[in-house]
Specification:
about 325 residues; alpha+beta; single chain; 12 helices; about 30% helix; Enolase-like, domain 1; 4-stranded antiparallel β-sheet; Uridine Diphospho-n-acetylenolpyruvylglucosamine Reductase, domain 3
Length: about 325
């Protein structure tokens, strides 16, 4: 049941920042997650500040350095179908195409996908859990088959975004506008792990808005992909996923980014797996060693130990596919 709230459709970023500074204000872009959170009473809102009319945030354009700039209001379906993204950053296009349903991809935005709230049923349900200001993570000793196996610390959510792991793998950044001006933050450090603050999702300060995603030029010889395993073949969140951005010189990996989804409270970069493959030819033995390395620090809960072999299989297979594409 939605409570009453005011609605403001702003005409500029400055106006949006100003309005968000008011008590009880919440940003409204695509609204696919916001309205669900309001219905589930995850939080309340006195005013929704809509930025849907800000045309400058709806563009995809080439950067002067050969990279790409994606406005925060660009829909997920546009990210999935854009020819430049498909050509230069195929892993991001694949990740976007795996988000939710076609209807939600048409409505949801890239900025919103990065900033969405966790899907934990305790957080979304009638539980005053740690993430909502309580003192208990009910998933730790409760129904936790979909929760994290890496990075859990007091709160055991998994980060729900598919695009975020792909963007971390691509060394992307987000541009942010707020009361104190603008700043740029790597996507890799944009999300806040529970060990730092279990009640915070991102580094955004009050009144700040993500305005743009900045993709650097893809390195020569880069092979990218995103694969997602889910309980249902479509319209579901990742049980296990992996984003790859690998550069090859001849047939050896010269640079590696391996980022997991469905594994941790934030998009999880596996430096252990990256170390195994860097400088190597990827064959079956190397891929298997990298997959095992990615799970060395995994600490499953009572009901999600199945994720370890699942991740190992997905990582191993995707590395071999990437090596085949680079050959």
């Amino acid at each position: 049941m939605l409570t009453n709230f005011g609605y403001i459709r702003v005409g500029s970023l400055d106006e949006a920042v100003k309005c968000l500074g008011e008590k009880g204000a919440r940003l409204h872009a695509g609204g696919t997650d916001l309205l669900g959170c309001l219905r589930d009473e995850v939080f309340e809102a006195e005013t929704l500040v809509s930025i849907s009319r800000l045309r400058g945030l709806q563009r995809i354009r080439e950067a002067e350095n050969g990279g790409l700039l994606i406005g925060a209001l660009v829909s997920i379906s546009r990210v999935a179908g854009d020819p430049l993204i498909q050509k230069r950053y195929p892993g991001l296009a694949q990740a976007a195409s795996g988000v939710a349903s076609p209807q939600l991809r048409n409505q949801g935005t890239i900025g919103g996908n990065l900033c969405q709230k966790p899907r934990c049923w305790y957080y979304r349900g009638e539980f005053h859990c740690l993430r909502k200001g309580g003192d208990t993570c009910f998933a730790f000793a409760g129904e936790n088959m979909f929760h994290c196996i890496l990075g859990g610390d007091r709160c055991y959510i998994v980060h729900p975004s598919d695009t975020a792991p792909a963007l971390v793998a691509l060394d992307a950044e987000v541009r942010i506008k707020g009361p104190n001006g603008g700043r740029t933050v790597p996507v890799e450090t944009f999300h806040v792990p529970p060990s730092q603050d279990p009640q915070r999702d991102t580094v955004l300060e009050p009144g700040e808005i993500v305005t743009e995603v900045v993709l650097p030029p893809p390195p020569a010889g880069q092979v990218g992909s995103y694969r997602k395993v889910r309980a249902r073949r479509s319209w579901d969140f990742a049980l296990a996923g992996v984003a790859l951005a690998l550069s090859f010189e001849d047939d050896r990996v010269s640079r590696a980014r391996i980022v997991l989804s469905g594994a941790a409270p934030v998009p999880w970069r596996s430096r252990e797996a990256e170390k195994v493959i860097t400088g190597k030819r990827i064959d079956a033995e190397v891929a298997a060693r990298a997959a095992r390395a990615a799970m060395e620090d995994a600490r499953p809960l009572d009901q999600n130990g199945y994720k370890i072999p699942l991740f190992q299989g997905v990582i191993e297979e995707e590395l071999l596919v990437a090596a085949g594409r680079a050959a």
